[in-house]
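Quick start: read one record
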Amino acid sequence: LGVRVAKLEKGADAVKITGQIRMRYQDHDDKYVGGDKADLRTRLWVTGQINDDWSYTGMLESIQNISDNVGNDTVELNRAYLNGKLGGMDVQVGRWDEVTASGAVYDTWLDGLKVSYGKDVKVFALAGKGADSYTGLDINCESNDRVYIVGAETKVGPVDVFANWFRAEGVLATVDQEVYDIGLGMDVAKDLRLTF
């Protein structure tokens, strides 16, 4: 009986449920913005360990417009992905919020596969499709556009060095886009990062 109870306790620890609630109110005097707005965003995160090498993450997000009583609320599965190891590579597959390097070129949700290798010098490749419309400094993606990213990053003392190649192929958009991003980044204070 003691072995069964220990096994059940270990299984109960494998799933972690957390959440966030945010209420936002915006006061706009500009007639073009549409006046005051208020919403309530609720996020429910479910994470767990599948085995020693693989874990899962899921996130449901609900946004309730509390400015009116129309019922124009949304509930979406915004994140659902697996992280694990395959051979000597780290693998991420599913839907997640991809922030590459500084996030200036690409920072949005996508459905895809990312493989990376290395410790001191990390190289990675990513292929996926946009899961949301996104406008960055150099890449503009519509949902369902194909996205490919290849990059390398390392650390030289306190400075991060990165080089990335991005390609977005329009399914809904009419123009394919290609961007090279080479830069440096450094934490200058807690929660403050400088990137060039």
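Residues 2-12 form the longest helix (11 residues).
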